[in-house]
Amino acid sequence: MSLAAFFQRLTARLRAVFQKPTLDADLDEELRHHLECLTEDNLARGMSPAAARRAAHLSLGSIDAATELHRDTRSLPWLEHLAQDLRHTFRQLRRERTFAVIAVLVLAIGVGLNTAVFSLINTVLLRPLPAPAAERLVEISNGDPANADRDLSSRTHRVDSWEGMLNQSRSFDAIEAYDPFSLRQTYPVEIDAATTQTSNLVFVTQGLFPLLGIHPELGRLFSTADAIDDGAPVIIITHQMWQQRFGGDPAIIGRSVRIGGRPITVIGVLPATDTFAQLFYPAVRVDAYAILTPENRRNYGNTLQLIGRLAPDVTPAAADAELDLVMQRLLTEIPNRSDFHRANVAPLHDVLTDRLRQPLLFLGTAAALVLAIVAFNFGGLLLARGASRGRELAVRAALGAGRGRLLRQLLTESAVLVSFGALGGTLLASGAITFLARRSSIEIPLLQGLQLDGTALAFMVVISALTAVVCGLGPAWRLSRADDDACGALHQQARGGTAGRSLTHARSLLVVLEVALASALAISAGLATRSLQNVLAVDLGYEARDLYALRVDMLRPPEEHAPYLTPLLDRTLALPGVSAAGFTDALPIERDRTWGIGAFKSPTDRSQPDEFLGARVKIVSPGLFDAMNIALLRGRDFTRLDDSEHPEVVILNQRLAQRLFPDRDPIGQATTQGEVIGIVADTRHAGPESPLSFEMYLPYRQQPSGSFDLMVRSSLPLAALRQDLASALGALDPSLPFSQMRPLSELVDRANSSRRMLTGLIGGFAGISLALAALGLYGVIAYTVTQRTKEIGIRMALGATTSAVRADVVGRTLRLAILGLAGGLLLALAANQLMSSLLYGVAAFDLAIYATAAVAVLVCATFAGLLPAARAARVDPMVALRAD
C-alpha cells in the first residue's frame, strides 16, 4: 500500500469515527433495503409473506454481526473503545468527587514540585549558557599560590598577561575581560537638574558582549572607536535603569548624562534580561556598562577577569598547557614580573555552577522522593477505591468483559486522574518558578531567567506518564482479576466477606514505603536546618546587627576626600542614637580586593622583605573598628594624625600578623605598607562560610580611595537614621546624592541566600512528605477499621473497653510507622552522603537529629491513627452484629 493510500484510508476511518450517527443510519437504511429486495424476490417465487421474510433474513445473515463488522472495518475500534472508557471514567469520578479531588491534589503536588525543581536544575546545571558556542566558553583564572583563599586579586590578571595571551596563544578565538572590582566604587548619576542618584557601573572590554551573544534593545554596543583612550566617553545602560531612571524614553540614545561629574553619552540600552549580570553578578544590581581599555588598567595590578572562547576542536586541557608556556615566556620578557602569575583554563559553565552542583542534585533527589511518596499514596488510593468496586468489576466480568478490557478501563481512569494532576502541577510549578525567578537577592546564576519552558513541560509529561503507568498498572492488574472467579467475587461481596484483606496488605506495604521515604527526607531536612543554624551562628569577627552602611560618592579627586569626610564623620557621631561610626572602602561580602605586603627583617633593615604575600586591603578611618565591633587586640587605632605628612602605618589582622612575624612582636615592625601599629581580630570578610584570610587596614588620609561606606552603629530605626544622615550629608554638600543605605545584615543574609533557599525547599519537601505519609496511614487504618467493624463489635460485646479499642488501632498505626521509620533511617544514612556540601558543622549521622526526626514521624503517625481509633471506639456492638 502506498503512503498516499494509507493516509487516505486513515483519514476516512477518522472521519467515520466522528460521523458515526450518520453512517450508522446509512448502514441501517442499506441493510433494510437489501432485506426488502430479498423479501420481494421470495414473494415473487410464490412464498408466503412470513416465509419470504424469514428466508430473506437467513440469506442476509445476522444483521447485528454485519453491523459490527462494518463498523470495525470503516473506523478505528480502539478509538471508539477509548471514548467509551473515558465516558465511563468521567461518570465514575463525578460519583466519587472526594476521591477524585484528593487524588488530583496529591498528584499535583508531586508533579508540580518535581517540574519546578527540574526547571531550576535545568536552568543552572543542564542547559548550556545562553551564549553562542557556549560549550567553548572558558574562564582563564590566575593561579597565585601565595593566596590559597582564591580572592579576586588571586584569580584575576594584569594587562600584560592578557596581552601576552592575545598575542601568543593560538587556542582561542577570542579573549575578553571585565573588571570584577568595578562595584568597589559607585557613581552619582545626574538624572536632571534636581535629581542625582547613585549607580553601579561595570567596566567591560569592547568584545565581551558579542562574545556572550548580547545584543542591545536600543542603540548599539561598544565599537573599536569607543575603546580609544582619548575617545569620547560612552556608556550602555541596563533596561532596568532605562525604565526606572529615564522613564523608558526612546530618545535616550545619544543623550548626554553626567556620571561622576563627567558628561557621558548613552549609546545603547540592554534587553530586560541582562545575561552578563545574571552570570557574573547574581543578586547584585548593575546599572550600566563602561568601556575598559588596556591603557587605563596598565599600571594596575590584577584587575581583569578573563573570559575566552576556545578555537574549534581545542580542549580546555590543551589550552591550559599552551597558556602555561605563554606565562613562562612572559616571565622572561617582562621586567619586574613576579613568578606567581599563572593561567588556569576551566569551562565557564563549570566555574559558575560547580558550588551549586551537589546541593541542586540533592534537591532533585529530594523532589524525586516526594514524587515516589505521591506515587505510593496514589496507588494506595486506587487500591482503596478498587476494594469498593469489586462487585462492579465482578458483574462486568460475569457479563463477558475480559481481563484486558477491565485492565484498560482501570488504566484509563488512572491516566485521567494523572492528567488532571499534571494540569494542577503545571499551575503549581508555574507559581513556584515565578516566585523563585523574582528572588533577586539569591546568589544563583541565571535564576532570574528561570521559566516553565518546553523542556520542563516535556519532563512533566514524561513523569506524569510514568506515574500513570507505574501507579495504575499494579492496582489495575490486581483489581482486574475479578474475572478469575466472578461468581466467587459476587458471593464474597454479597456476604461482606474478607476479600479485601489482600488489598489492605498491599496498601500497608505502600504506606510503609511512604513512611520510609518521608523519614529520610525529615532527617535530611533536619541536617540542612542544623547546618543553616551553624552558619548563622558563625562569628564573623564583626557584629552586623544595628550596623548600617551609607554609600558616599564624591565629585572630587581622592586627595580632596579627607577634608570632606572628616566633618561628615563628626556630624554623624554627634547625631542622637549613634554610638559609633567610621569609613571603609571595602564593604564586607560585597567588595573584595587584595594588595601585596611583605615584612622587613627589622625597622632599620628594609633592604628585602622576608616574605611577600597577598592580603585583603581595607582603607578605613578612625572609629571603624568600634563601629563594626572588631576587637583591637594590641596596639592602637588610627588617628587623624596618620596622614600624608606622617610615616605610613598599617594595622594587621591576627592571622596576617602571625604569618609575617611568627617569632617577634609585630607592633613597631616594618612592612612594605608601613609600620605596624595595631593587631585586630580576624574577620570573615567574604561571608560566614568563607575561610579566615590575611587582612590589612590602611588609614584613609594616607591611602585615598574612590568611594567609601559610612558605617554607622545605631539603635534607631532605619527610616529615622536615614533622615538624620541625609540632613548631615546635605548640610556639607547639597549637590551630592543621598546614596543607598542598607543594614549590613542584608549583605550577610545575601551571602547565605542560596543555602537558605535550598534548606527551605528541603524542609518544605520533608513537611509535604510527612503529611502525605500521615494521609496514607490514615487511609489504611480507616479502611482496616471499616473491614473489622464486626470483629470490633464482637470484642466490645465481650467486654473490651473503648480505650483498649483505641489503643489497638493506634498501635496498628504505630507498627506500620515503625517499620517505615526503620527503613527510612537506613536510607538516610546512605542518601545523606549526597548532601555533604550542604552540611556545615554537623556530621551526616547526628544522633539528636535522627532522634528528632523519628519522634516527628511517630507523632504524625499517632495523629493519623487517632481519628480511625475514635471511630472504632464508637462502634455499637448490636449494630455491628446485625450488619450482615
Write the layout of secondary structure elements.
Blueprint: H1 3-18, H2 20-44, H3 49-60, H4 63-74, H5 77-95, H6 97-126, E1 137-141, H7 152-155, H8 159-168, E2 172-178, E3 186-192, E4 195-204, H9 208-211, E5 218-219, E6 234-237, H10 239-246, E7 256-259, E8 262-269, H11 275-280, E9 288-291, E10 305-310, H12 316-333, E11 344-347, H13 348-388, H14 390-398, H15 403-437, H16 454-479, H17 486-495, H18 501-536, E12 547-553, H19 562-574, E13 578-584, E14 594-599, E15 611-620, H20 624-628, E16 632-635, E17 649-653, H21 654-660, E18 670-671, E19 674-680, E20 695-699, E21 707-714, H22 718-732, E22 741-743, H23 744-751, H24 753-787, H25 789-797, H26 802-831, H27 847-873, H28 877-882
Parallel strand pairs: 4-9, 6-8, 15-20, 17-19
Antiparallel strand pairs: 1-10, 1-11, 2-10, 3-4, 3-7, 5-8, 6-9, 7-8, 12-21, 12-22, 13-21, 14-15, 16-19, 17-20, 18-19
Helix pairs in contact: 2-3, 2-4, 5-15, 6-13, 6-15, 6-16, 8-12, 13-16, 13-18, 13-24, 14-17, 15-16, 18-24, 18-26, 18-27, 19-22, 24-26, 24-27, 26-27
Q: Uncertain regions: pLDDT < 50 for 5+ in a row?
A: 145-149, 482-499
Major β-sheet annotation: 7 strands, mixed
Evaluate the radius of gyration: 38 Å
Terminus-to-terminus distance: 63 Å
Specify the oligomeric state. Answer: single chain
The beta-strand count equals 22
Average of pLDDT:
82
Strand percentage: 5-15%
In DSSP terms, counting alpha (H) and pi (I) runs of 4 or more, how many helices?
Answer: 28
Give the helix level as a range of percent: 40-55%
What is the approximate shape? elongated
**What class would the helix/strand composition place it in?**
alpha+beta
